[in-house]
Design goal:
It is elongated and about 65 Å long. The chain has helices spanning 14-17, 34-41, 55-65, 106-109, 123-131, 139-157, 167-178, 183-192, 200-214, and strands at residues 3-7, 19-24, 27-32, 44-48, 70-73, 79-82, 88-91. With 216 residues, it is an alpha/beta fold. It has two domains: 3-109, Rossmann fold, CATH 3.40.50.300; 123-214. The chain has a three-stranded parallel sheet with strand order 1-4-7, with helices on one face. Helices cover 43% and strands 16% of the residues.
Length: 216
């Protein structure tokens, strides 16, 4: 089974899912979008950050995901698309604290009866993940960076901070250590500076946490 995927944002349009009309040599055609292709071919479809999509996009998803597993292509003379056997859809959502996310309609949520909550991995597991991307031997410093990331994540979870660092940041922290930069400076660049966009008070909160863990 082939895997198809799409990452949703406020810029995702129906045409990305469904497709759009084309004009070539005077002939009008239709280029199928990823949803239509996956349905026809019976592929697995991965919808990333689906709760960042606009309402019109979610309506077309809802149509395709109901029990009939059909989609009427109003964009192509009302053609009826029926999902091939084996068509399977997985979706991920971000917490509503993330910018650009919104509550999903109950009827769309009901299309996904199996739901799994994924938290950040334990610190020792995250350390092993980060080490796969890092060349140098910085185990103590990496562990310290991961503890910092978890402290910021916990603060964001109770809305004391606006942003929750991801695994991308802890990996970036390790790669910057590889370049020879000191841990404190790497922590400022990777973890602290992003908070400046929410003002000096927010930035200073994070800076104080970094100082307590890494020193001046």
């Amino acid at each position: 089974m082939k895997l198809e995927s799409i990452n949703f944002s406020l810029r995702t349009r129906e045409s990305h899912l469904i497709g759009s009309k084309t004009l070539e040599s005077g002939t009008v055609g239709f280029e199928e979008g990823i949803l239509v292709k996956s349905m026809k071919e019976g592929n697995m479809l991965y919808l990333d950050e689906v709760n960042s999509a606009e309402a019109d996009v979610l309506l077309r998803l809802d149509e395709a995901l109901d029990d009939r597993r059909q989609l009427v292509l109003k964009e192509s003379s009302g053609q009826l698309i029926e999902a091939a056997k084996g068509w399977f859809v997985i979706a991920t959502i971000n917490p509503l604290s993330h910018v650009g996310t919104k509550e999903l309609p109950p009827q769309l949520l009901s299309r996904f009866p199996v739901r799994i909550r994924l938290d950040y991995p334990p610190e020792d597991v995250e350390l092993q993940i980060v080490k796969k991307y890092v060349k140098g031997s910085h185990e103590n410093e990496l562990a310290q960076g991961i503890r910092l990331a978890n402290t910021l994540r916990q603060a964001a979870a109770v809305e004391e901070l606006y942003y929750s660092p991801s695994l991308r940041e802890t990996i970036a922290f390790g790669k910057i250590l590889d370049s020879g930069m000191k841990p404190r400076q790497a922590a400022d660049i990777v973890f602290a500076n992003v908070y400046a966009q929410w003002g000096n008070v927010e930035y200073q909160k994070v800076n104080d946490i970094i100082t307590s863990m890494f020193g001046n």
